[in-house]
Amino acid sequence: MSSKGSVVLAYSGGLDTSCILVWLKEQGYDVIAYLVRERPRCLLVSVCLPASAQVASLSAHCYSFKPGFSSLKPGDGGVSAEAPGALYASWPLSLPTSSSGFLFPQVFIEDVSREFVEEFIWPAIQSSALYEDRYLLGTSLARPCIARKQVEIAQREGAKYVSHGATGKGNDQVRFELTCYSLAPQIKVIAPWRMPEFYNRFKGRNDLMEYAKQHGIPIPVTPKNPWSMDENLMHISYEAGILENPKNQAPPGLYTKTQDPAKAPNTPDILEIEFRKGVPVKVTNVKDGTTHQTSLELFMYLNEVAGKHGVGRIDIVENRFIGMKSRGIYETPAGTILYHAHLDIEAFTMDREVRKIKQGLGLKFAELVYTGFWHSPECEFVRHCIAKSQERVEGKVQVSVLKGQVYILGRESPLSLYNEELVSMNVQGDYEPIDATGFININSLRLKEYHRLQSKVTAK
Amino acid sequence: MSSKGSVVLAYSGGLDTSCILVWLKEQGYDVIAYLVRERPRCLLVSVCLPASAQVASLSAHCYSFKPGFSSLKPGDGGVSAEAPGALYASWPLSLPTSSSGFLFPQVFIEDVSREFVEEFIWPAIQSSALYEDRYLLGTSLARPCIARKQVEIAQREGAKYVSHGATGKGNDQVRFELTCYSLAPQIKVIAPWRMPEFYNRFKGRNDLMEYAKQHGIPIPVTPKNPWSMDENLMHISYEAGILENPKNQAPPGLYTKTQDPAKAPNTPDILEIEFRKGVPVKVTNVKDGTTHQTSLELFMYLNEVAGKHGVGRIDIVENRFIGMKSRGIYETPAGTILYHAHLDIEAFTMDREVRKIKQGLGLKFAELVYTGFWHSPECEFVRHCIAKSQERVEGKVQVSVLKGQVYILGRESPLSLYNEELVSMNVQGDYEPIDATGFININSLRLKEYHRLQSKVTAK
Amino acid sequence: MSSKGSVVLAYSGGLDTSCILVWLKEQGYDVIAYLVRERPRCLLVSVCLPASAQVASLSAHCYSFKPGFSSLKPGDGGVSAEAPGALYASWPLSLPTSSSGFLFPQVFIEDVSREFVEEFIWPAIQSSALYEDRYLLGTSLARPCIARKQVEIAQREGAKYVSHGATGKGNDQVRFELTCYSLAPQIKVIAPWRMPEFYNRFKGRNDLMEYAKQHGIPIPVTPKNPWSMDENLMHISYEAGILENPKNQAPPGLYTKTQDPAKAPNTPDILEIEFRKGVPVKVTNVKDGTTHQTSLELFMYLNEVAGKHGVGRIDIVENRFIGMKSRGIYETPAGTILYHAHLDIEAFTMDREVRKIKQGLGLKFAELVYTGFWHSPECEFVRHCIAKSQERVEGKVQVSVLKGQVYILGRESPLSLYNEELVSMNVQGDYEPIDATGFININSLRLKEYHRLQSKVTAK
Amino acid sequence: MSSKGSVVLAYSGGLDTSCILVWLKEQGYDVIAYLVRERPRCLLVSVCLPASAQVASLSAHCYSFKPGFSSLKPGDGGVSAEAPGALYASWPLSLPTSSSGFLFPQVFIEDVSREFVEEFIWPAIQSSALYEDRYLLGTSLARPCIARKQVEIAQREGAKYVSHGATGKGNDQVRFELTCYSLAPQIKVIAPWRMPEFYNRFKGRNDLMEYAKQHGIPIPVTPKNPWSMDENLMHISYEAGILENPKNQAPPGLYTKTQDPAKAPNTPDILEIEFRKGVPVKVTNVKDGTTHQTSLELFMYLNEVAGKHGVGRIDIVENRFIGMKSRGIYETPAGTILYHAHLDIEAFTMDREVRKIKQGLGLKFAELVYTGFWHSPECEFVRHCIAKSQERVEGKVQVSVLKGQVYILGRESPLSLYNEELVSMNVQGDYEPIDATGFININSLRLKEYHRLQSKVTAK
C-alpha cells in the first residue's frame, strides 16, 4: 500500500494515542510521533513502556532547542545539564512498536517548557485571566503551545496532516485545530475520535486494550483511576468518570500537584515576588533566602512552594465552547500565587481607569484563550494592548503561603501611583477638602434631576 | 440664639461624632442623633458612656421596627426577644450631655440589620460584586442603607439638614451624600470635616479630646489603635495610621472578626447552602445538623463559622472614587463564603451567554456601589436586570470551610443546565462528534482568511 | 414508497424553493408548503404561477389569524377586508403541481406582518440595534419570525421535519435553524443546499430550470437580475452576482423600496412621531394632518414617506456569522426614520448612565439578532433588560424627511430629564458654579498623580 | 500695585474674553493673551477691532511654528506662504487696549491647525468616535489642543496662571482645566465665570457692554444672534438662547458651515478617499480630478465639498459631563464624510472580532474625549490600542456627496479581508457547506439544553 502521506501525531504515550498511532499506520499514513515536553522533570512518566520495545533511528530526527538534548539517543542516560535531577531517569526511551518492528519513522521530542512559561503563561498572568471568574486556564494555555510546535514540525517535515487524541465533546479539539488552521490553513487535521470508523470500532477502554494487545502496544500496568487527568507544567485537571456527577465530592487521593491543605505545614512560607512589566522576574523566599530569577525556574519553584501548602485547588462547573456544562477539578499551584501577587502590584502601579479598560480586555482574553483562539487576530490584538498596559507594572509583593491560601502582606514599587501623603488621614497635603463638596454636588446633579422626574411622575 | 433648624446626625458614639454633635449645637442647630444598628448584638458597644450621663425623653422618640424595641426607655434592661443574647447589656442607654444638661432633643435608634442583609447584601451576592477584583464592598453597601434611614428620619421630623463625620478624603462622604441628595434633593448636608471652621479648629485627636473634656463628652478610655476601623454586620475595615505605608504588614493583633488561619481548627466545617433566586435561603451544618433559614440568622451564622476558620481576610490597595489610591485591610467572613457558593450555583444553573452579560452588569454594579451610586437610576436598572438573571439560580452547594479557605465540594439543583449524559465521556448521548468538525472548520474560516492576508502582506 | 414523514417547507414561490418542494417529494417526504406573509399587500407577488396549475384541498388546511383570510379557497377573489387594495389580485392561488396532479398535501398562508412589527421590529427600535454600526437588521429580524411560525405549523401538523432554501454560506440558514432548534429541539432540519445529493445535482440556475421544466414547475418569466434580492416589510437586501465585487457600484435601477434621492421631492415631509415605552404609537404628517396609530399602519406609512424621499439606503461590507465578509446593499426606509427618532426621544428622557449601560446591551442585542440567536436565553434576557430601560421613553419627535436624509427638528416629552432652567446660560437656577471647581479639581487629582509618576520616571 | 504674576488667557477676541482680559489686569495680573488658530483662513474674523487700537511690542513675542508666521508684526500684510488666500487680510492686528495705552504685555498667536487635524481629528476618525451615538466631538477635540498650547506658553513664559472664558455649567471648563492639570499640575486656573466676584458683577451682556465701553474695549457692532456659537476647523456648535427650548426648531438662517440641503446642488460630487493606517491620505474628486494629499488641505477640501452639499448637520440633546442635559445643533462637514468613509474601509480590512473589541474601545474613547480626559493615562492607552488596530486599515472608498447625505459607492484595498471567491454564491471555493451543519448543530446545543430545562420547569 502506498503511503497517504505523513501525519504528525501529538503523542502522549498513553493508551489512546498509542492505539491511534498504530491505527494511523493501518490507515496508510507515515506517522511522526511528537512528544511534547512542557513539563520539565516529568517528560516521560506517562510513557511507561517496556525497555524491550524497539525504536528506530530516534537520534537522527530528534529536534532539540536545549543544549542537553541534542545528543539523546536510545540507550542514553538522558540527564540534561540544564534541568538538574532525575530528568531522564526513564531512559532508554522505549516507544511502542508493532510486533513486526519499526513503528516510528520519526520521533520528535520538543522541550517547550520555557516558551510555555514565557509566551503563554506570562501573558495570562499579565491579563489576570480567569475564565468564568475561577479557572486559571492551565489546559487552555498549553494547547496552542503544543499545537504550534506540532505545526512547525509538520511544516519542516513536509507533512500534510496532523492528528490528536482529543475527544469530540471537549474544548481541546477546538484549541488544537484552530491553532493548526491559523498557522497553516492548508493543513488537514485527523481527529480519530470524531471519525465513525474509529469511534465505532473503539467503543470503550476494553476495545483499545484488546487492540493494544494485538499490536504489541504496551499496556499501562497501573490501574486506571475512575476519572481522567491531564497535566502540564502549570496545572492538572481531573474530570469525567465518577466526577461527572457534579454532586460527588473529589475522592481524598485524587490530588497530585498539591498537598491536602489540612495536612500542609503549620508555618507559612513568606515570598517576595518581584515584577517587571507585569511579569515575575525574581522570587525570594524570605526565610531561607532562596532566590530564583529565570522564568522557568521561578515558576517551578512557586509550583513547589504552593504545592507544599495546598494552594491552587478548585472544583467548578464550567461552560465548554461547544455549549455544554462540564465539571472539572483543577490544581494550579504557581499560577494561583502569581494571580494574586500580580493583581496586587498592578493595583498599586496602574491608573484606575486604565485598569478598568484593561480588566475588560482581560475578560476577553480569558474567553479567547479558553475557546482556542490564541492564534487569532483578536487575541494578538488583545495581548498587544494588555502588554502595553503592563509597561509600568513593576515592584515587589510580599505574600504568605499557608494552608491552601495566599495572603498579600505588603507591596512596594518605584513606579507606584500610591501617594502616602495625599491619602493620609493626618496630613492634609495639597488636598483641599472643600473640593470634595463641589465634586459631590456636581455628581448629585443628575440624581436630583432624576428625583425631580420621579416626583413629577408620581404626582400624576 | 434662635435655632438654625434641625439636623439629623449619623452618630456612632465615638469621639468624632460626639464632638460634632456638640459643635453642631454650638453652631445653633437642633441635633437629632441617629444611631444605626446594622450590626445586631453589638449595637452600642462603641458608645461607651458613663451611666451618669443624662438623657432626655428618649423613649418618646424612639423609632423601632422590631417588636422588642418599641418600649425601650432609659433604665430598661434592653434585651430584645428577637435577637437572643446580651443585646442591650450596656443599657441604660447613656448618651453624652453637655454639662448643663439636655443635650439631645431626640435620639433615634434604628435596627436596619435585616434590611441591610436583604436589600443590600443579597443583591451584592447575586451580582458577585467585587470592586477591582477583590473587595466585597462591605462598607460601600452599608452606607446607602444608613443614609436612607437618616433621610427618612429627617423627612419625618422635618429636619432640613443631615450631618455625618466622614472625612474629606474618603469614599464615605460621597456615598452618604449621594444617597441623601438622591432621595431628598432639597436636603442640606453638613460635613464638618470639609468645613474650614471645623477642621482648622480640630487639627488632631488632641483637639477633639480637649473639646470633649470641656463639654463633658465622655472620652473612650481604651487606647486608640494606630489605625482606624469601621465595622458593620458584613465586614470590618482597617486603614490609616501605620497601615498607610503599603509595605507595612498588618500587625498580628489587628484582626477582630476572624481567627488567625494558622490557629484555626484543624477540621473543617462542612456546610450545605441552599439558594433560591440567587439568594441563600438555608444553611445547614452537615456535621451537627444546625440549620438557619432566615436571612439575618443564616448570615450571622456564616459570619460565625467563617470567623472561626479565618475566612475572609484581604489586604489591598484600591482606587477611591476621588482619585487617590488607598490601602485597606478587610475582613468579610460570611460574604466570602457566599461569594464562592453563589458563583458555583450560578455557573451550574445559568446559561453561558446570560452569565457573560450578567458578569458585565455585575462589574458595573460593583463600581456603582463603591462610588456611592446605590440610589441612582443606573444602579436601580442594573439591580433589576441582575435580579432577572437570578430567577433560576437555585440549588444546593456543599462547601468546606477550613484554615482561611472555602472549598466547593459539590452542587445539585432541580434547575441545573448541566446534563450528565450529554457531557459524559462514556456515553455518546444525542451528541454527534462529526458536528464538532463542522463547528471547528467554520470557526477557522476567519482565521484562515486572516492568514491569507498576512501571507500576502509578508510576500510583499 | 412509504412516506418518510412530513416536512414543513418555508416556501417563497421562487424557483429554488419550488424545485426543493418537488425534490423533497421525490425523496419521499410529505411536503407542507408554508408561505409567509410578513409583507402586507405583496404577499403573492413573487409566486407568479399560471392559473392552470392544480391545487388540492387548499381551503381545508388554510390557517389564518386575520378575519379576511379564514374563508380563502381556490378560486376566491382573495381581497382581504383588512388590507385594502389589490392584495390578492393574483388569486385564484396557483401553486406548482407535478404533472401528475396533487402536489401539495397542505399549504399554510400565514400573515405575520403585525407580529413581525410588534414583536421583532419594535424591540430592535428600542435597542437602537445596528449591526457593525450600520445595518438595521431587516433580514435578521424576519428570520426568527418566519421560523417560529414554521415550527408552530410543524408542531400542529405533527411534522418531524422542516426545510428551507437558504444557502450554505449565509446567515439565514443559521437564523432559521437556531430558531427551530430553540423552540423544538427534536425537530430535524433538511437544508438541501448543504446536502451533496442536492447541490451536486443542481450546480447552477440552469439545472434548476431544467428540473422545473421536467416537473411542470412554472418558471419565472421575468429575466433574473444579476444579483439576488430578499425583501420583507422592513427592508430589502441586494447581494451576490455583480455586487460580489465590492468596488462595483450599485446599478441605477437596482433600488426598489426607495426613490433615488436625487429625484426625490424638493420639499420635505414633516412628521411628528410619538413614542411610548420606546415604541412609536402615533405618526402625524404635520402638513396634511394624516395620522396613523396602529403599529402596522404607522410602520407602513413611514415606509411610504421614507421611500418617497429616498431614505434608508446603505452599501456595506459586513461580517457574516460563519466568518466571511460579504457585501450587501440594503434599503430600510421606515426603520431608518424610527432609528433616528427613537435615538432622540431616548436621549431626551433617559438618564445618562442608564443610557450607557443600555447602549452596551443594544450592541449585544444587535449581534445576537444578526447571528440568529433571537430565541436564546441571552437574547430573551437582553430584550427584557432593554424593555425595562424604555419604560419612560415617551414623547414626541419632529422630523423632516428630505432627499435621503432624516433631520431631527425638535422634541418634547412629559417625562423628559431635560431641565431648561438648569441648563440655561442666562439663569443660574439652583446651580452653584463654584461646585464645578471642586468637581474639576477632584477629577484632576488622579491625572496629577499620574503626572507626578511620569516626572519621576523621566527624571530617572 | 505689584503684579500677582502672569496669566495666560485663552483669548478669542469676543466681548467676554476681552472684558476678562481687562478685568484680570484690574485684579493685578500680567496678562498674556493667547489667540489660537485652529481654523486656517478665519483666524481673526471674530476679533473685529478698530485699526486705531494700540498694540505694543507684538512682534517681539510672537511665537510661530510655521515659516510664514515668524515675522508678523503690527502693520504687516499677514499673508502666510503656507496657507494661500486672504489669511491675514484683517491685519494690522488690532487688539483691545485700555484707554491709557498698553494693554497687552504679550500676545501669542498660535497656528495649531495642522496638529489639530493630525493629532486630534485623525485619532477620532480612526476611533469612529461618536458621543452618545451622534456627536462627532468637534468642540471636545479642539479643547485639549488649545489648552495644551496654552500650557506650553505658560511654561515657556513662566506664568503660574492660565485663564479661560468658559461658563460654569458647560463641558469646556472641564476640558480646558483637566488638560492644564494633566500637563502642568502646579498650574493655577482662573475661571472668572465661576468666581462670585466676577459673575455677580457681570450678570448679563449689558454689564459686559458697559464695562467694555468704560475701558475702551471695542464692542462688536454686529447684532448678537439669539444663540451662542463656537467654531473651529472641524465643526461649529449652536446652543443656548432660543435653542434652549428643545422643541424650538433651528431658525433657517442659523447654519453657517453648510448649505441648506434643500438648496444644495442637484448633482453629487463623487470623491475617492484613500486611507492608510486608518487615516485619510488622499482625496480625489472623481469628476474634476482635484486631488489633496496633505492632512490639513484634504480636510479643508472635504469641509468645502461637504459644506456645499449640506452634509453634517445634527440637532441633538446630549448629556453633559456635569450631569445636565443640553441641546445643541452642530455642523461637522468633513468629519461626517470621513466618519462614513472610514467605517467602510475599516469593515473591509479589519477582522470581525478585532473590530468588535475596537468598537468598545472607540466608545470609551468618545466618552473620554467628551468629558475632557484627552490627556489622561486611560485616553493615551486607548489611543495606543486603537492606533494598533488601524495598522492595516488601508484602501480607497468611493463616496457620493449629495443633498446632505454621504453614500458609499464602493471600496477596494490591497489589505482587504474580503474574499470574493469564498463568499460567491456561484463558486463553492474551498468552502464545504456541510461544515455549516456542524456549526449550527453545535451552536444549537446550548439552546436545546435551555429548552430542556424550560420544559422541565413548565412540566412542574
Automatic annotation (TrEMBL), chains A, B, C, D:
GO BP field: argininosuccinate metabolic process; L-arginine biosynthetic process; urea cycle
InterPro entries reported in the protein's UniProt record: Arginosuc_syn_C, Arginosuc_syn_N, Arginosuc_synth, Arginosuc_synth_CS, Arginosuc_synth_type_1_subfam, AS_cat/multimer_dom_body, Rossmann-like_a/b/a_fold
Catalytic activity annotation: L-citrulline + L-aspartate + ATP = 2-(N(omega)-L-arginino)succinate + AMP + diphosphate + H(+)
A molecular function GO annotation: ATP binding
Domain Arginosuccinate synthase C-terminal: 227-450
Keyword Ligase: yes
Pfam families from the UniProt entry: Arginosuc_syn_C, Arginosuc_synth
Keyword ATP-binding: yes
EC number: 6.3.4.5
Localization, UniProt: Cytoplasm, Cytosol
CDD domains: ASS (cd01999)
Ranges for domain Arginosuccinate synthase-like N-terminal: 7-36, 107-218
Pathway(s) it belongs to: Amino-acid biosynthesis; L-arginine biosynthesis; L-arginine from L-ornithine and carbamoyl phosphate: step 2/3; Nitrogen metabolism; urea cycle; (N(omega)-L-arginino)succinate from L-aspartate and L-citrulline: step 1/1
Sorted UniProt keywords: Amino-acid biosynthesis, Arginine biosynthesis, ATP-binding, Cytoplasm, Ligase, Nucleotide-binding, Phosphoprotein, Urea cycle
Gene Ontology CC annotations of this record: cytosol
PANTHER family membership: ARGININOSUCCINATE SYNTHASE
Annotated family: Belongs to the argininosuccinate synthase family. Type 1 subfamily.
NCBIfam families noted in UniProt: argG, PRK00509.1
Subunit structure: Homotetramer. Interacts with NMRAL1. Interacts with CLOCK; in a circadian manner. Forms tissue-specific complexes with ASL, SLC7A1, HSP90AA1 and nitric oxide synthase NOS1, NOS2 or NOS3; the complex regulates cell-autonomous L-arginine synthesis and citrulline recycling while channeling extracellular L-arginine to nitric oxide synthesis pathway.
Name listed for the protein in its UniProt record: Argininosuccinate synthase
Native organism: Sapajus apella
